[in-house]
From TrEMBL:
SMART domains: HTH_MARR
Protein's name in the database: DNA-binding MarR family transcriptional regulator
Alphabetized InterPro entries for the sequence: HTH_MarR-typ, MarR/SlyA-like, WH-like_DNA-bd_sf, WH_DNA-bd_sf
Residues passing through the membrane, by range: none
HTH marR-type domain sequence ranges: 10-149
Gene Ontology molecular-function annotations: DNA binding; DNA-binding transcription factor activity
Pfam families in the cross-refs: MarR_2
Keyword DNA-binding (UniProt): yes
GO biological process: response to stress
Organism expressing this protein natively: Thermocatellispora tengchongensis
Length: 157
């Protein structure tokens, strides 16, 4: 098998992908801290923000669905939902597909809060874009999406 048909990559490419991972960790941690520092206006932790973002993008979901989508424990997601519900940002509604697993949906207050956070983030990211091109950003998204998909489906010995 070759690298074009899903076989092992050349050692040099594996080294380059390791460089990607070496950057993603610090990038994630810095973004995490930035969100924590910038979100007090809305009172959102990073976990609550992630739940609100997912509901904004995908509509009402169950707690187990959110946990699977983010590779997080159901218990952690439930704590984030409880925090968001206590602030009036989400609400439980009956799930026609499953009587015991309610759907969680954004309230209007939740939609306003997550939109404000996303708008602020986009403004900052617009400044960070610098001289990057659309093609470079598209390539970055493609690589990161590929790695995420691979890690979700690979069995490591």
């Amino acid at each position: 098998m070759s690298e074009t048909d899903g076989g092992p990559a050349a050692p040099e490419l594996a080294d380059r992908l390791a460089e990607v991972f070496d950057l993603v960790g610090p990038l994630y941690r810095r973004a995490y801290r930035k969100v924590e520092l910038d979100s007090p206006i809305e009172g959102l932790s990073v976990g609550v923000r992630a739940v609100l973002t997912m509901l904004r993008e995908h509509g009402p979901m169950t707690v187990p669905q959110m946990g699977r989508a983010q590779a997080l424990s159901r218990q952690f997601v439930q704590r984030m939902i409880n925090d968001a519900a206590a602030r009036g940002l989400v609400e439980s509604v009956p799930n026609p597909a499953h009587k015991r697993s309610s759907l969680i949906r954004l309230t209007e207050q939740g939609r306003i809060a997550i939109t404000a956070v996303a708008d602020r983030e986009r403004a900052v990211l617009g400044q960070a874009a610098g001289d990057l091109t659309e093609a470079e950003v598209a390539a970055c998204i493609r690589v990161l999406s590929h790695l995420l998909h691979f890690l979700d489906h690979v069995e490591v010995d």
